[in-house]
UniProtKB/TrEMBL annotation:
Gene3D superfamilies: NAD(P)-binding Rossmann-like Domain, UDP-galactose 4-epimerase, domain 1. Residues 6-242 form the NAD-dependent epimerase/dehydratase domain. InterPro entries: Epimerase_deHydtase, Lipid_A_modif_metabolic_enz, NAD(P)-bd_dom_sf. It comes from Stutzerimonas degradans. This is NAD-dependent dehydratase. It comes from the Bacteria. Pfam families: Epimerase (PF01370). SUPFAM superfamilies: NAD(P)-binding Rossmann-fold domains.
Amino acid sequence: MAERPVLITGGAGFIGSNLVDALLARGYAVRVLDNLSTGKRSNLPDDSRLELIVGDVADAACVRQALQGCRAVVHLAAVASVQASVDDPLGTHQSNLIGTLNVCEAMRAEGVRRVLFASSAAVYGNNGEGEAIDEDTPKAPLTPYAADKLASEHYLDFYRRQHGLEPVVFRFFNIFGPRQDPSSPYSGVISIFTERAQKGLPIVVFGDGEQTRDFVYVGDLVEVLVQALESPEAVEGAVNVGLSRATSLNQLLEAIGEVLGGLPAVTYQASRPGDIRHSRANNTRLLQRYRLPEPPTGMREGLARLLGL
Ligand code: NAD
Ligand code: UD1
């Protein structure tokens, strides 16, 4: 019998396609379910052990079909932009919460138990202000995006208690690296800044640039995801994925300038509504349960890899 695949929803996107590469390299068969809204076919390699289903996680029948015969799921499909959820709460909800429910229901029906879920540091809102945020920090979802991620966590926990699912919930901080699509104003800040810097186009900072993020190189995250798939147990309780390092946007620009040997003009505009001021993980639980590369990929090294330097 052919080996049962791992289903990666959102597998044609930034994080998903990096995970696809890592799983194929380890000999897994992989099935991707993606509506190609931000993901791209060209992010995926040509490999006989990889199958792409173009479809929507908001479509229950499609999810059920995609899950048939799978050994586990990595549920990454979502509108990843916080700002997009502010602009279109109902539209993003279809992907970000209904999609999760459809995955849970399909797993229950198909008897698939292990699911890794991409939750977000956004669930903490501004509650971690100035401190490293641990997983027990009170939640304060400020945007539809954060509300859907937190609700998804609760649904996954319900399916764990009621139906024996084995969810492993990760709260990713800010992930960056190759294939993060820079083409929309909703894209991740590092992909936008590096692309504009390379093309010599002006860069816009929303706010004073002193807001901070805990940036994680995608390759380091993927190492953790593979370990969680292979672990015999799905330990309860969400896990922050951050390096516990705060980088301000102004420091980020300095690093990009150093790596590229210069920067274009930078202008400052009003902050985005719902934008979080400071976000830095307490990653004690991550380090207890998983191995990060030692040392983890630093900002300048990650930027150089992203820029192919
Ligand atoms: P991405 O936009 O590159 O990937 C999302 C993928 O999901 C895309 O391929 C897109 O086409 C697909 N998709 C979106 N809606 C879909 C739908 N309704 N049905 C099927 N496919 C759909 O973004 P990413 O950065 O790779 O994010 C992956 C996951 O990680 C998302 O759930 C995101 O919320 C989460 N996350 C990302 C970060 C980060 O810093 N990048 C941080 C925290 C959480
Ligand atoms: C990011 C992720 C989100 C994730 C969260 C976890 C993306 C698109 N968003 O949200 O999925 O859940 O981390 O912490 O991957 N900015 C500018 N100029 C720009 C673009 C952005 O100044 O051109 C600013 C933003 O206002 C914000 C910061 O950069 O202050 C980071 O923005 P962004 O990359 O969109 O990430 P988050 O909102 O932190």
